[in-house]
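Check out a protein:
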Amino acid sequence: MATTADDAALRTAVARARRRLIPFLFLLYIVAYLDRINVGFAALQMNQALGFSATTYGLGAGIFFVSYVLFEIPSNVILARVGARLWIARIMITWGLVSSAMMFVRTAPAFYALRFLLGAAEAGFFPGLIFYLTRWFPPRERARTVAAFMTATLAAGIVGGPLSGALLSVRAGGLAGWQWLFLLEGAPAVALGMVVLGVLTEGPHEADWLTDAERAALVVGVNEGRPASDLQSDAGTFAALRGGRTWLLAAVYFTIPVMLYGLGFWMPQMLKTASGGSDFRTGLLTAIPYASGAAAMIVVGRHSDRVNERRWHVAVAAAAAGASLAVAPMHASVAWTVAAFSLAMAGLASMFGPFWALATAAGGGGTAAAASIALINSVGNIGGFVGPYLLGAVGDATHSFAAGLYGIAALMLAGGALVLTVRPESPAVRRHGTPR
């Protein structure tokens, strides 16, 4: 049994780790998500300038996830072996360079090639950060921690919409606005990649900013409920990848990127059509659903930790997201569209904290855990290809996004039902009282 002093040291260590790490990781993920979805804003000008159809754009937007999925697991295994500091820095620098190079796109094949390279460069970033957080925060703290970190996804939409809309109006140096957008939004990733080398600490055992008691308590805390088997071995890694629970979680997660990126890549164009406004006004309108999602993500993540429950939080949020998305095409006014997208984004964002707390509850701390997280994220992110391409192809075929939105809504409802079949946790974890 932990002593009162141990508990106090653990609470203090977690609080200090959260203050030191989460704001910086939050900033990194804002830049990552902005570079990933800024093509949605660039498309307001780029598609017409380069003669891209909705299908061409949807394929190019989604092909990012093909290479992202292919390289995800190898990248995260390398991160577990060489360390988060070095590998995350490498990821950021290379993706920043590729993202800025998007300004040179002139043809559809070049568009596809650079989006593919961007996915390869960024592969491993998000699951690497999730794995990194499991080295710092006990299982019972993870939903709120992941939610706090992943509000960056929504913050990128809040900040990125108006920013991207403003950059589209820049005309200088013979470059169009969409070219300036890619150039200026890619550069921060390169700079922050270099900063990572001096800021990140691999784990509590290296944290000279914690006391000895805090380091010891945190090491014990993050190992709470962790299986005793040697998950550093190759056998442990392959066993983790073959686990049915891992694949079931991957299937649930598939539904999330379908909506996240389908809506993220196409929402600027849908809102511009609904409002008839300028690029800058469209950017402001896209910020509203992301703000709604950010608020909901924090509230639901905290509630999930407080009541120590995961699956129903994910399921109810998925149902809310799907239902809201389904009603979006029922009226063409900008107020209705923004309201429906705001409710849908609130439901979607609420899934992240509880989902990743559920997905990491039974994991270890070695390469097996890194590979399992990467598998869930990579298989799930196939949905990042499906969502944008589905909306683009359906839009070209029907001259409306309605059928595509209904399809995504149905997938969200299916994901919400499927998560209820996931085994809450392994017996070894259950004995230690970790989250459900």
